[in-house]
Amino acid sequence: MIIFTPQNTVLALTGLINLAMGIFILSRGQRNRVNLYFSLVTLANFFWTFSLFFWYLAWSDQVLRLFSGLPYTFAWLVVVSLFYFTINFPYKSLKYSIFFNYFIIVVSVAIVAYTTFFNKYFVRVADLNTNSVYYDQWGHLIYSILLILLILASIMVLFKKYKVAEGIFKFQLKLILIGVLVGTIFGCYFNLILYYFGGFKYDWFGPIFTLIISIVVFYFIYSSKDKIHA
Amino acid sequence: MPKKKQKILLLLAGGTCLIDKSGNVLSVKEKADIHTWLKSMPELNILADIETVLVNGEDDIVGLHTWQEIAGIIDKNLMDADAFVVVTKIDQIIATALSLNFLLQNLQKNIIVTGSQVSGSNFVDKKELISQLKAKHGGLGLRTNLINALQATRQPLPGVAIMFGTRLIAATKAVYRCDNEINLLASSDNSYWGRVDFGVNVRSDLTHNHYPTAIYKNLSNKVLVIDDWPGAPWLWSKKDMANYQAIVVKTSPYQPLEPAKQKQISAWALPTVIYNCQTVSPVKGTVAISGCSEETVIIKTMWAIANQKQLGDFDSIMQQNIIGEFN
After folding, report:
1. Which sequence spans correspond to the domains of chain A?
2. Distance separating alpha carbons of residues A46 and A13, to the nearest angstrom
3. Cα gap A221→B200, rounded to integer Å
4. Claim: this prediction has a pTM higher than 0.80
5. Confidence of residue A1 (pLDDT cuts 50, 70, 90)
6. Which CATH class is domain B6-214?
């Protein structure tokens, strides 16, 4: 079995870059919510990418089933973290009740359980011999709707903030908005919409676009020439 | 995960101009304006519990009395608020921050001074600047500065800080330097307490000073500041000097003060500071100071003179590193 095919190499590199970025941002101070939620986005991206990596390496039907469900688990966690990141970047701009938080947690637990622990209801067929995976149509549809709704909510939060922002925030929000738009549009296309129609060939493309937002953040940090270290 | 919101006392002393959603310039001239002004920045109340105090209207003169009043209000509310944010005019930001730093030493609460890029409610003369800032940066910077200031209050700072543009600057290091349209202030040694890169990034090694808190009430306005030009005589008589309690002379770095001027200084017999930021030639009977900003020397003199009874020897106080001004 060849572990490092071109697809897997790209996935491994993308995952590792996301992991490094997550650790780097977290090391800047986890008390800062911007850092915290962004590192959660990148760490979830890392797990999402590596679950796709292992999907290519599946050695049994059970493993194939597991790694057909796990990318959905982590993709949901990416989007939930992204949503909280957009609320908090560059400053908290939305008041939400504790019930909203509970709602997100309950939905997330349900999705994680459905796509991971009860994945036989989500991944209806996982056959390594014919290399075919079929998802439950309704489950996939509901998951996709929830995911897209949360992505749209994140984009709306960012856009609303961008409209009233001034100075450095306007510029930063513009770049983050572009990063999120490109990342989510291509991510959804290659790893959600094509999946729905049974197209798994290009699923390794999706994670590449998550790097755009990391590049943008890296640029924010290193473009500033002002020294802040003692 | 949700943290308790900080209680912030927001003190307004000019520098309150901002552009609202419909493109109108708003500022706080009187108490009645505060509600509309705050309403145009709903983010502030999401970030913290804000209580507002109007010290000066937008068109009032900001000076020594304003600084003393602000210090008094902060002193009164020390137990009630978690931190203090002072909004003032851009041209008075450094002096305001330094005054508060000398009046309220080693507080265990943060004080951050900020403001708008534009001051004064007469916009006719600033029309071009306002439309330029609006077109290029989406506003006059106050909303961003305030949001950043509120976020920066969450981490302990060793003294009064200025939040402006993308920089969190120690009051003692702040200088006016227009590096770009957003950053009109800089740190004299290019080292900052924090910056806005990916969110507000405040240095993690900063702590409140652990020296005993010292609170002073007064600054003296009887300090004469002379910007000396070699060859240009000083035409003040001893009688003119009767109105002053101290003198600050800004000199050139590599030329000693002319003998005639040295004689005048000793005849006036007032506490005198000879200052240049790089280096200064000592003059008998004066305190020679370099290595800090001009505003620091002036404000420190105003503070040292006003509190001489409490502080003791003027010369030694002026040479001491009181608030980190010589760091």
Report:
1. 6-220
2. 10
3. 11
4. yes
5. low
6. alpha beta
